[in-house]
Design goal:
The protein is α+β, with helices and mostly antiparallel strands and 154 residues long. The protein contains 2 helices and 7 strands; from the N terminus they run βββββααββ. The chain binds zinc ion.
Length: 154
Amino acid sequence: MNSLIATTDCTHSWSEPGPQRVAFTIDAWQGLTDGLIQCATCGQYAVVNLLDWGGRNLCFRIFSVALAGSSTASVFLRNMNSDYCDLSRHQAEANALLAATERPCRLILAGVPGLNVITSRPLVERKPEPTFWRESIPNGETWFPLFDFDCAPS
Ligand SMILES: [Zn+2]
């Protein structure tokens, strides 16, 4: 257990339908793929990583949600928002953030652009290792059935 993560009764804003606060976009492809989000209620940070996508323009996306400690997130944001010219640093900072997060605990089904949660559920079936989508290209066959969600345009 990471002692930097405050114990809270908050269910976190990403558990409920609605737009989410994206504190930092780590990577994107026609919308968010990896990022740092923040609970609108309690301020808890979490890292979201794309697991699967579908629909028109890949607008429906399933993300894993892994809690990130506030000090970890603060250091990441400060470093990413400071001026630098070393292009490898972006990836190094992102990897450091990922390494410091908890294992994913929740799945969200969200629409992009932005991050608009449609529904969410606890992640109990199998826990993916946190990873960036470019290192784990979605195969589009395993995560959507958990939500009983049809991506096809109506
Ligand atoms: Zn919260």
